[in-house]
Amino acid sequence: MKNDLLLRAARGEETEHAPVWVMRQAGRYLPEFRSVRATHEFFEICRTPDLATEITLQPIRRYTGLIDASIIFSDILVIPQAMGMEVLMNPGPHFPDPLNTPEDIAKLSKDVDVNQELGYVFKAITQTRLALDGEVPLIGFCGAPWTLFVYMVEGGGSKTLQKSKSWLLKWPEESKALLVRIADVCVEYLVGQVKAGAQLLQIFDSNAGELAPHHFAEFSVPTLQRISAGVRSKLAEENIPAVPMTLFAKGANHALGFLAEHSGYDVLGLDWCIEPSKARALVGDKVALQGNLDPNTLYGGKEAIEREVKRMCESFKVGGKTKGWIANLGHGITPGVDPEDLRWFFECMQKYSATASSK
Ligand code: CP3
User: Fold this and answer.
1) How many angstroms separate the alpha carbon of residue 285 from the centre of ligand 1?
2) Ligand 1 within 6 A of 204 CB?
3) What is the uppermost EC class here (predicted)?
4) pLDDT score, position 111
5) What strands lie across the sheet with 70-71, from one edge to the other?
6) Which atom belonging to ligand 1 lies closest to the Cα atom of 59?
7) How far apart are the C-alpha atoms of 167 and 113, rounded to whole Å?
8) How far apart are CA 98 and CA 346, in angstroms?
9) Distance (Å, rounded) from C-alpha 354 to C-alpha 280?
10) What number of CA atoms fall less than 13 Å from residue 217's CA on the CB side?
């Protein structure tokens, strides 16, 4: 590895500066992405290893020397597809035939063979690792069971999550059984990604914050733990070295202390609604942290970006040192960002997160 800052920070080590990447870093804010997208459907790109590799590399090429990780181009919704559901992207996700009642669970495939259904992601990962040639580490990912459950039940994005919450309240046992079924596919899928070459795994629980704390604890946390434990034990069984695992439970800052202690993840991702120093106080030195600039800061102009980055760095540093911190936004980058403003974010990050830099 020419640049292993990400892996060192994930292990909680001190780094010369904070490794930085951004969620959705290969996406619509990049003209080179839009140009590929003009002639290819979203899921067609995901399923074509040459295209997925090309797009994964786009931000790495554009920001050479400024960006410290790549993330494989794919989507969390490939798991519902692998379980037999149709998913369209027009322009947001749309499931023509969502799960309306527990009887619909019977429509899902019984034994999902991840090599057969998701082998295209494994191919893309292996191909991307080769193309990266050790430049930066490659992150693999999947959606958390609760977040995927919401899409499978609502049939797309939802503001209220009315259907999903009705499921939890009316059919708690059936909901839990479905969540476990999704989790078991996640485990196989993540293990396959490591075998294919992924060097760190991130689980996106983007809908975690929609649940009351006691419902998050009852419905999401057990499957998040099942995934971290399941991936670790399967890798150990096959004598494959463990990789660091990141949990991004957006909106679940109330649970940070518990998650640091009991979730089995090495890194916890933060959204922008918690002060970094407060998050560090809650988790102690049990885990590394990732985050957490408000993505809309990138619309504030260069001066504001610099000011906010400097502030974030001061809040994440412990005793003036950068240790166990992976810098990122608090959620995905949005399509209207000027790529040059993102470059400026990366430049400011290198400057202000350096351990040597005066605060
Ligand atoms: O981070 C990366 O660059 C890797 C690729 C990646 C995508 N989606 C590509 C994508 C990752 C890690 C995701 C995760 C994902 N997908 C999440 C979890 C993270 C989050 O944002 O909360 C969720 C909830 C999804 C589901 C999804 N996919 C939605 C809601 C949408 C539409 C809204 C949007 O932001 O565009 C997508 C589409 C999608 N996934 C695009 C990209 C680049 C844009 C699609 C297009 O090109 O038309």
Assistant:
1) 31
2) yes
3) lyase
4) 94
5) 70-71, 138-143, 200-205, 245-249, 267-269, 288-293, 325-329
6) 3
7) 27
8) 40
9) 18
10) 10
Query: Which tokens belong to 172?
Result: 């708690």
* Nearest CA-CA partner of 98 in 172, 162, 41: 162
Query: What amino acid positions are annotated as catalytic residues?
Result: 24, 28, 37, 75, 151
Beta strand 88-89 with 93-94 is antiparallel
DSSP-derived secondary structure letter, 351? H
Distances (CA, A) of 39 to 33, 47, 272: 11, 14, 35
330 in ligand 1 pocket by Cβ < 6 Å? no
Q: What is the pLDDT of residue 359?
A: 46
Is the ipTM beyond the 0.90 threshold? yes
Q: Which CATH number fits domain 5-353: 3.20.20.210, 1.20.950.20, 3.40.50.720, 3.90.25.10?
A: 3.20.20.210
| Amino acid symbol at 71 | I
CB-based contacts of 279: which residues, under 8 Å, 6+ apart?
A: 253, 256, 268, 270, 289, 292
CA of 76 to the centre of ligand 1 (A): 7
Residues of the chain with pLDDT under 70: 357-359
